[in-house]
Amino acid sequence: MSDWTKRNFGELRDVSPPDVAMQWRFARNALHSPELGVSRFTYEPGARMPWGHRHRVQEEAYVVVAGSGRAKLDDEIVELSAWDVLRVAPGVIRSFEAGPDGLDVICIGGQKPRGGDAERFEDIWS
């Protein structure tokens, strides 16, 4: 195996749940990376992730590559626009909502602990 890997997000399988107006494409396995998680989340206009999540140890950075929207971070709402970079510490519950033109976000995370470390929270927007 070489010391580099190239993949195209458009070629990765959409693994989003059937009940959300968005696409999820995860590149960690496609890149054969034990250290980095790189994901693309594409929200249709006005779409909102119906739940939130946090991590025990993984810090994440989100880069808005197109569109606009909002992030809910614990009890705060943060406006997002193209090329904003948002760092979120592990313990912060986060969720995203697209603006009128949709929202396209790249998420970069660290090494995934064995067994994962994400915890899901329902109905955080209410």
Automatic annotation (TrEMBL):
This is Cupin 2 conserved barrel domain protein. The lineage of its organism: Bacteria, Bacillati, Actinomycetota, Thermoleophilia, Solirubrobacterales. It comes from the Bacteria. Keywords: Metal-binding. The keyword Metal-binding applies. InterPro entries: Cupin_2, GPI/OXD, RmlC-like_jellyroll, RmlC_Cupin_sf. Pfam families: Cupin_2. The keyword Transcription regulation does not apply. GO terms for molecular function: metal ion binding. Residues 40-98 form the Cupin type-2 domain.
